[in-house]
């Protein structure tokens, strides 16, 4: 596993300004892995965004992943698949998948990591059933690829997510609204890594 324990997912609708500015601030605060979502944009616009974010991450040896299976841009290190997306016919260096239940985690065989959501209540993940909570998260981290806890995760929740077996946490809204909160997530993650073997 080459990814850091904090995974930042983009959502330009929650940013105070342009998405690259928010990502730049998150990187300045310590973020080193970003998933470019924005799947509603045309391919050319997403490719342009991917190139811009890659240019921000490259100087800090960061990692850019692109959500969706249709296009894997040259500037990205890999792809983040939706639960039902087919596995890429040509495997990129990193492959992740969004999961919401045990069946989807089991189907993620061959992936480098999964996100498991929603762990806590969040307006960003409607329609995926009730929040899993730490206990539900724990049932989905026992098998399968390393898991990032996603959905309503605040810095204060990091320890519970790690105790439930999560490799790390994935954050969208919290970081998009306040990129400087990355430092709080990293501090909480650092404490759990020190506490656990």
Automatic annotation (TrEMBL):
GO terms for biological process: thiamine biosynthetic process. Gene3D superfamilies: Aldolase class I (3.20.20.70). Signal peptide: none annotated. Residues 7-174 form the Thiamine phosphate synthase/TenI domain. It holds the Pfam family TMP-TENI. GO terms for cellular component: cytoplasm. Pathway: Cofactor biosynthesis; thiamine diphosphate biosynthesis. Transmembrane segments: none annotated. InterPro entries: Aldolase_TIM, ThiamineP_synth_sf, ThiamineP_synth_TenI. One of its GO terms (molecular function) is thiamine-phosphate diphosphorylase activity. It comes from the Bacteria. Keywords: Thiamine biosynthesis. The keyword Chloroplast does not apply. Condenses 4-methyl-5-(beta-hydroxyethyl)thiazole monophosphate (THZ-P) and 2-methyl-4-amino-5-hydroxymethyl pyrimidine pyrophosphate (HMP-PP) to form thiamine monophosphate (TMP). This is Thiamine-phosphate pyrophosphorylase. It comes from Asanoa hainanensis.
């Amino acid at each position: 596993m080459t990814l850091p324990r904090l995974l930042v997912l983009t959502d330009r609708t929650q940013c105070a300004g342009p998405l690259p500015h928010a990502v730049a601030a998150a990187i300045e605060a310590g973020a080193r892995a970003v998933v470019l979502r924005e799947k509603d944009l045309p391919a050319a616009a997403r490719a342009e965004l991917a190139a811009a974010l890659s240019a921000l991450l490259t100087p800090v040896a960061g990692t850019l992943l692109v959500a969706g299976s249709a296009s894997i841009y040259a500037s990205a290190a890999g792809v983040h698949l939706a639960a039902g997306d087919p596995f890429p016919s040509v495997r990129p260096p990193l492959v992740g998948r969004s999961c919401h239940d045990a069946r989807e985690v089991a189907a993620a065989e061959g992936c480098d990591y999964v996100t498991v959501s929603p762990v806590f209540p969040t307006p960003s993940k409607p329609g995926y059933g009730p929040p899993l909570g730490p206990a539900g998260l724990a049932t989905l981290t026992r098998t399968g690829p390393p898991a990032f806890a996603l959905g309503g995760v605040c810095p204060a929740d990091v320890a519970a997510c790690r105790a439930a077996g999560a490799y790390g946490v994935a954050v969208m809204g919290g970081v998009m609204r306040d990129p400087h909160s990355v430092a709080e997530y990293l501090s909480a993650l650092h404490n759990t890594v020190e506490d656990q073997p």
